[in-house]
Design goal:
The complex is a heterodimer of chains A (about 260) and B (about 260). Chain A has about 260 residues and is α/β, with parallel strands linked by helices. Chain A is built from eight helices and nine strands. Chain A starts with 6 loop residues before the first strand and ends with a helix. Chain B is an all-alpha fold and about 260 residues long. In chain B, helix 8 runs antiparallel to helix 10. The chains are: A alpha/beta (about 260), B mainly alpha (about 260).
């Protein structure tokens, strides 16, 4: 449709105080609509900060960020954020947690009810709709968190290491699930992780960052066709990408 | 359930044993009843003056409840202001601690002098000593909200009112109940302290505090013990009512209010 890129970083630098070393320096990055881009790097390379900048939760120190051609703050209605922890409201049932974003945006009760029912079905949690978060497992909580993010029909999803707290089996399953969900929604995703396998499995493009200060070190186009399924992890092509990304990540870390 | 029954039985046996030792000690050591009446005398006093005891109980209960209710409303309002204005909070917060350390016995006569005698003045004394724990805990609850949750609300363009109603207030509820629980215990102490100075419009009839003084003056030590016993029951009653509401509001989602806690 439009040729406006989803996200544009133009020479972005971010420091948290005037005297400190920048967290991010001279970031130039364009993300087109429909891409699944993963920021991969060791901790301290500023990848979470990049998400906060896109969400308009932190201001840039210099440079410019546009989200759909808009200032990040003004683009918020198009965007949903998924945090590392599930960040559910413990006093709300699963169903009402998913409805939260809709409530905040002033949608009608009926609409919220309809949308949440559909989403809970999509993430396979209809049977716990009336339970409270404390009764859920880590994986289930993350599913609720994702359903909540999808409730406002975002065009762009920002995900900050959402599966870092899950065990490997659950993480793999969530990876498959998020790709399955994306087929229906076709949102653009900016994803943060420090797992190479996760980055390769999910993304159409992997951006490798080097730390202190955070800079873009390498980019890899992952030319593996979607839809991707669990079987992909056992193919030589997948291994090739994982090995390449691991090597580049090590290099970025050394330099 | 079995465990709880066992605990209750345990407490009863200890209580009975205590009464027995008390009775035997008074009898064996020939303690005069005006110094320490045996439990049987106290029991007799309770039965004989039950209507008086109930009247005093209710007068104190009323004052304590009014003071506690006032401190919950007032404390929450102050906490809301503190949460909204960090500068004011830093300026005034030390004074809420002062409120807690000032000896209430020393200022109770002053308060009664200013506010006059009667229920209002006694409730005011209660209000003052109940206020600090509620302010401290409610403020803590309102400001200790998870940053990510706050950012989530901001991402969806939530108004300040929505953040307060849907995030800060529910988050502060368990903290507020900790404050109320502490205050419910001292509310009865506050009311009785107030009554010690408040006097009564009718000779011999007033709250527990007043009646304790009156019984002391008359050397009705057995009735004095009955009054102390009633005061203890009143304190317990307050505590359990608060516990019930805490359970009612929190048991569905909060860890602290889960039934069948097995600590001890």
């Amino acid at each position: 449709m439009s040729s406006i890129p989803e996200i544009v970083f133009r020479d972005v630098t971010k420091r948290f105080s005037a005297t400190a070393q920048p967290v991010l320096q001279s970031i130039d990055l364009v993300i087109e609509r429909g891409e699944f881009v993963t920021l991969l790097g060791p901790s301290g390379c500023g990848k979470s900060t990049m998400l906060k900048l896109v969400a308009g939760l932190e201001p840039v120190t210099s440079g410019q960020i546009k989200v759909n051609g808009l200032e990040p703050r003004n683009a918020r209605p198009l965007v949903s954020f998924v945090f590392q922890e599930a960040t559910l409201l413990p006093w709300r049932s699963v169903q009402r947690n998913v409805a939260l974003a809709l409530e905040l945006e002033g949608r009608s009760h009926e609409e919220a009810l309809r949308t949440t029912a559909k989403l809970l079905d999509l993430v396979g949690l209809t049977h716990v709709a009336q339970s409270y978060p404390r009764a859920l497992s880590g994986g289930q909580k993350m599913r609720v968190s994702i359903a909540r993010a999808l409730a406002t029909r975002p065009q762009l999803l920002l995900m900050d290491e959402p599966f870092a707290a899950l065990d490997e089996m659950n993480r793999d399953r969530m990876n498959e699930e998020i790709l399955r969900l994306r087929e229906a929604g076709n949102w653009t995703v900016l994803f943060v992780t420090h797992s190479v396998a996760e980055a390769v499995f999910l993304s159409s493009r992997v951006v490798i960052l080097s730390p202190y200060p955070g800079r873009i070190a390498h980019e890899i186009s992952v030319d593996l066709p979607y839809p991707r399924t669990a079987g992909l992890r056992e193919t030589p092509a997948f291994d090739t990408f994982v090995n390449r990304a691991s090597r580049l990540l090590r290099e970025a870390h050394r330099s | 359930m079995k465990k709880r029954l066992f605990l209750a039985l345990n407490a009863l046996i200890v209580f009975a044993a205590l009464l027995f030792v008390w009775q035997v000690a008074v009898w064996a050591l020939h303690v005069p009843p005006y110094m320490l009446p045996p439990p049987v005398h106290v029991g007799r006093a309770i039965v004989a003056r039950f209507p008086d005891l109930c009247t005093s109980f209710w007068i104190s209960a009323e004052a304590a409840a009014a003071g506690l209710a006032g401190s919950i409303v007032g404390g929450l309002l102050i906490a809301l202001v503190f949460a909204r204005l960090p500068l004011l909070r830093r300026m005034l917060f030390p004074y809420t601690i002062l409120l807690q350390t000032v000896p209430i016995v020393a200022i109770a006569p002053l308060i009664l002098m200013w506010a006059g005698q009667g229920l209002f003045a006694v409730a005011l004394v209660t209000f003052i000593i109940c206020l600090a724990p509620i302010i401290a805990n409610a403020t803590q609850g309102l400001i200790s909200v998870d940053t990510n949750l706050l950012q989530l609300f901001l991402m969806h363009n939530a108004s300040q009112g929505q953040i307060l109603r849907k995030l800060r207030l529910p988050h502060s509820l368990p903290y507020l109940f900790v404050g109320i629980r502490i205050s419910s215990g001292i509310a009865v102490i506050g009311a009785i302290t107030g009554e010690l100075f408040a006097g009564s419009t009718r000779v011999g009839q007033g709250g527990l505090g007043y009646s304790i003084l009156y019984a002391m003056a008359q050397l009705q030590t057995d009735y004095l013990f009955a009054l102390v016993f009633a005061a203890t029951i009143l304190g317990f009653t307050f505590f359990f009512i608060v516990m019930f509401f805490e359970w009612l509001f929190l048991h569905k989602w909060h860890e602290s209010a889960r039934s069948d806690s097995s600590e001890i």
